[in-house]
Amino acid sequence: MYFIKRNKASYFLLFLLFLLIIYIIKVQNEIKSHLSMDFQKFDNETGVRNLIVPNLIHYVHFDKKSLNFVSLICMLSAHYNHKPSRTFIHTNIQLEGHYFDIYKKVVGDKLKIHKVEKPTHVFGQKLSSVQHSADVARIKLLMKYGGIFLDEDVFVVKNLNRFRHYECAIGWPVSQNIGTQVLVAHRDARFLPLWLAQYQNYRPSMWYYNAGEAPTKNVLAKQESLVHRVAREFGVENLADQLYKKNWTGWVNRYTIHLLDRHKEYLTNTGEFTELNFMDCQCTFSVLANNIVENLLDDGVDLVRETELKSPAKVVDKFESGVVDFINSNSKSLLHKYLSLEVYSRLRLLRTSKYNTKLEDLLLSGISHPDSSLGIYVPEVEAYSVFGALLQPIIRDYHGLKGRIGHPPSDWGQGGEVGSFDSDTDSGRVISTRIRIARSVKGFPLNSKMTREDYVRLEQTVKIALASFTGEMAGSYLSLEEMSPVDHEKLVADHLMFGECDRYLKDAGACQYWPTGRGIFINKGRTFVVWVGEEDHLRIISIQPGGNLGEVFTRLVAAVKVLESKLTFVNSASLGYLTFCPSNLGTTLRASVHLKLPHLSSSDRLQRLAKEKGLQVRGTGGEHTGTVGGVVDISNIKRMGITEVQAVGSMFKGVKDLVRAEHLLEH
Fold first, then answer.
1. DSSP label at 620?
2. Element (H, E) at 299
3. Confidence class of residue 628 from pLDDT cuts 50, 70 and 90?
4. Per residue in 335-358, is it b (16+ CB within 10 Å) or e — as a string?
5. How far is CA 52 from CA 143, 172, 187, 304, 469, in A?
6. Strands 168-171 and 86-91
7. Alpha-carbon distance 202 to 193, whole Å?
8. What are phi and psi of 167, to 5 degrees?
């Protein structure tokens, strides 16, 4: 025992020694980065092992008293994504305003406001603009301090330490002049004084000659080895279209990106951004800005809410007023449980990239109907990730998941695992048995974002796949649009067809263009049915009278294999098969029986027992309907985190327990 304790103490001391060594190396690197260096034989291709450029970020801000939204986002991106030792704002003015207050609050004591005089002359010549003054200032401050200079509209994507190993790293795209928006330089870098010397031939009327063209042609074209050339990673070329007209995924491969804030209007006809409208463009900038807004929220800073508190009283729209009323209501829905004003404020400005889905699209039904048990629908696949801060706790709660959300691969069993209700005890008690699954077809949005053309195209696509069924499952497709009211009512009465949209689906936007694109496929024996275009793209159903659950299950497995060979279904590694309502995620499988339980159903005991067994009780007309004559619809609740064969097995076991309880009450 003494040896073990001694060994543990030794390991602990070694760990402390290791931390001390790391700290000493870090301090040495910081000291070296501030020492003078002779770069005459320095290789800017390979650099050196040590970090020789100090970890300081510099901004130059002249004349304007405040920051704008883009400046705040970009300056915070440097704070979050690079993590400098200190940030300097070199300015000739007392900064103020809402955005500056937020920046100062977040950066804290790492921020240093350095009062300087704005350069008015260079080599005895009057500077013609504040931009030229800033160009001169950036060179001089790097010659004095060294570090990383950034324009205020440069977004830092990732840590810049890679470039601190060089004498001077500069954005220099192929066949272009250097970009001055991002500079990483030691104070003794040879290029800096040569660059400043180009202002001896200052041309006040030429916008970029002295800052970019002259040093490129007169210095670097002859001595490229003075700098480490960064052709693409600094993003100093014109990326306006990629930033403001597209959803450009290439931004992740850059270290920084110049956002061209002062130029975006004439380049792309893009106006000014604020925290209230930045998501509206549905472009790359929205993604970049939202990353920083999310970081602020993690730091306890709600940018939207702080802006509202600073602003005059705003007009609250009808929906937002409804949200507040809903949050303050006594609704028992899971939406009510997890939707707070903080979550609403955090998500309300977000939009998906393709279908422009907003939070209101998910909430409208649940807000309108506080009696709903879940209260939320998801109009498209991307919304599951964009609005995950609200959806994940609801999904976790409904499906009884703990920890990280996950779902196993499909497993329909090897055959024979599923039992049947045809024993003497159950004889005559089980009226019918059905198993249904839901599927979303790849290439289409989920229900409420479907256009009329989408519904028609989905119906045609599915009809082709359904025509491939043969034998017992061969059948015919009946379009709801062409079906007579009498035929429709008879199919609904026979529990084969969906009825009209209920109020929950209507307010979720799932009933648009009804009955276009909706229909039903039925086999000749009326034991296999496919619904098209109801709540989900497809509901695939195996059904028959009596209690032969094994036979119903086997038929469904065969049908799924056929359809999977013809259609591609939307599946997520963590959520399973994706559906319009989060309650159906995972297997999407609902195994149910219509069951005579007159004694249990006459009291609240049935609901209590069913819940204990992981079962749901409905009326025989489906969700939101009542029971008639002691006949109830019993099904599994859990669809996620388990396999298909497990879901059916749990329903079977639970129903058997309910039947035993009913039998005891009869005797």
1. T
2. none
3. low
4. bbebbeeebbbbbbbbbbeebebb
5. 14, 21, 10, 40, 71
6. unpaired
7. 15
8. -60, -50
Residue 590 β-bridge partners: 436
User: Running DSSP on this structure, what letter comes out for residue 200?
Assistant: G
pLDDT of 469 > 80? The answer is: yes
Residue 58 half-sphere exposure toward CB, CA atoms < 13 A:
31
Please report, for residues 23, 32, 158, 170, the alpha-carbon distance to residue 184 in angstroms, rounded to integers and kept in the order given: 24, 16, 14, 7
**CA 345 – CA 218 distance, rounded (Å):** 53
As a dihedral over the C-alpha atoms of residue 214, residue 219, residue 225, residue 229, rounded to 10 degrees, the angle is 0
- Two tokens, residue 664: 């005891």
Tokens of 608: 């209590």
Q: What is the DSSP string of 411-429?
A: ---SSS----S-STTTTTT
Angle formed at CA 566 by CA 560 and CA 568, multiple of 5 degrees: 80
Residue 390's contacts (CB-CB under 8 Å, 6 or more residues apart) are 338, 339, 343, 347, 359, 362, 376
Closest of 38, 201, 62, 55 to residue 130, by C-alpha: 62
For 531, the enclosing helix (H) or strand (E) is strand 528-532
Q: Are 651 and 636 spatial neighbours (Cβ–Cβ below 8 Å)? A: yes
Strand 86-91 relative to strand 56-61: parallel, antiparallel, unpaired?
A: parallel
Q: Is 459 helix (H, G, I), strand (E, B) or coil?
A: helix
Give the C-alpha separation, 331 to 537, whole Å. 30
Q: What are phi and psi of 66, to 5 degrees?
A: -135, 165
Alpha-carbon distance of 480 to 520, in angstroms, equals: 7
Per-residue confidence band for 321, with pLDDT thresholds at 50, 70 and 90: confident
Ramachandran region of residue 52, left (φ > 0), alpha (ψ -120 to 50) or beta? alpha
Cα angle 509, 514, 515 (rounded to 5 degrees) comes to 150
Could you tell me the two tokens for 634? Answer: 């019993």
Q: Which of 74, 98, 69 is nearest to 87 (CA)?
A: 74
Output the six-digit token pair for 76. 């915070």
CA atoms within 13 A on the CB side of 180: 25
Instruction: Say which amino acid occupies 520.
Output: I
Neighbours of 374 (CB within 10 A): 18
DSSP state of 332: -
With a CB cutoff of 8 Å and minimum separation 6, the contacts of 541 are: 434, 435, 436, 528, 529, 530, 531, 556
Cα distances from 135 to residues 91, 286, 404, in angstroms, run 13, 29, 50
Length of the chain measured in residues:
667
The tokens for 312 are 């005059």
Lowest-confidence range among 81-85, 517-521, 522-526, 602-606? 602-606
Say if residue 312's pLDDT is above 50. Answer: no
By three-state DSSP, how is residue 545 classified? strand
Q: Among 245, 70, 32, which Cα is nearest to 154's?
A: 70
80, two tokens = 């979050």
CA distances from 564 to 559, 568, 576, 586 (A): 9, 6, 15, 16
Of 411-415, 424-428, 447-451, 547-551, least confident by mean pLDDT is: 424-428
User: Which among 103, 105, 96, 136 is positioned nearest to 119, based on CA atoms?
Assistant: 136
User: Taking a C-beta distance cutoff of 8 angstroms, is the pair 627, 619 a contact?
Assistant: yes
The answer to whether 368 touches 548, Cβ cutoff 8 Å, is no
DSSP letter for each residue of 387-405: THHHHHHHHHHHTT--SS-
Residue 645 CA to residue 86 CA, distance in Å, equals: 59
The neighbour count for residue 28, using CB atoms within 10 Å, is 12
Grouping H, G, I as helix, E, B as strand and the rest as coil, residue 590 is strand
pLDDT score of 530: 98
Rg (CA), the chain: 33
